[in-house]
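Example (one chain per record):
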Amino acid sequence: MIAMKRAAITPRRLGLAKYANAGPCRADPVELNCQDDIRVLYLQSEGRAHVQSIIYRRSIADVFRIQVVSNSDVRSPIITLGSTSFFHVRINNLYVVAVTKTNANAALVFEYCYRFINICKSYFGKIDEEAVKNNFVVIYELIDEINDFGYPQNSEIDTLKSYITTESIVSSSIAAEDSSKITSQATGATSWRRADVKYKKNEAFVDVIETVNLSMSAKGNLLRADVDGHIQMRAYLSGTPECKFGLNDKLVIDKNEKGVSDAVELDDCRFHQCVRLNDFDATRTISFIPPDGEFELMRYRSTSNVKLPLRIIPSVTEVGTSQVQYTITVKTNFNNKLSATNVVLRIPTPLNTTTAECKVATGKAKYSPAENMIVWKIARLQGGQECSLTATAALTSTTTRQVWARPPIDVDFQVLMFTASGLIVRFLKVFEKSNYQSVKWVRYLTKAEGSYQVRVRVHPLFDFR
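Predicted structure:
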């Protein structure tokens, strides 16, 4: 458990101008007058043990452990008990918890928690119980520097790495000089970037990553199809470069503009604080001075004109009370020069299934009794390709009528150089006063992870219901 005394969060201190007028707080044009007090911030392991402790009020941690960690039916990330509210974010086997006694702005509290997680990731990679125990000194230093007398002041990774390192201690004169530079950086116009960054080879990598969410009815009707996307960038550029980033010509934002049928429509666009929003509103060009290293440039959603990479056609037939026969067909809906990788179909079986015989021409399929499903794995599926699975599930006879919920078929996959939203990067330009040459790379990735589902329609000769 990691705790801090008191954190009064304000949007402007966190650099969250978009939240300045949100929530129960009323914003002053110059400064936000109200304060959302976080009394405790700590990490709790899933195994009900405190990972690391500076405990000012142990009762707070005990209450959370009893109400959340020990409770298997927790559905909300916010729990209010009396006058105390617990905001928690779960990552791997840990809980990052913020505790407040005021009517706090939830968006700000969660933004603070996620920023704390990202900062920890940038220092020691994956966050789990072992990583926290091995890096407890660094975490204490981070909390101390992020919060000045309990007030969040600086959550920029690049600035924090300037003076919180795991390297040897430098001399006092160098430390004083570095401290002066850090103060200037933290209070300047580009607090997220140092001015003295140098690279032998100047490169910029852009990853457009989209997650497709699909829900298809048993009759083949589309119930839901949307895309959660984000643009991840790794900037290894010297000096203080100005970057310009262009997207599709036919781009509609938040459906406030009149678009055409083939336009790319993006909703809920959120940008890194380095982006000049006025330029984007005027020209749809993203202009910014990037932080050094990896950061998330943009996050968005798309609910219109979604291109579905895979089409799943299920046919399930119940043969009496002893068998269920499956024919599952998978079709790809993208260019034959592309391919889907790590394709996994999870096909549910009745509760009283004993064995299942599977036949496939592509990939491997087997029955998993522990999961009560047939798992079909395909390493690579070319664009324009079609493949099928046939299976027969043997059922045990029962004296009572078994209820089969008929869960949907769940599909996981990855498709490189394809976007379900249709979003493309038209150009990426880098300008710097030294006029150096830079190399730019753009990659697209569309994936599904547990949210691409097709419901099953059963043709019964005997109905389990």
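Caption: The CA atoms of residues 314 and 328 lie 5 Å apart.
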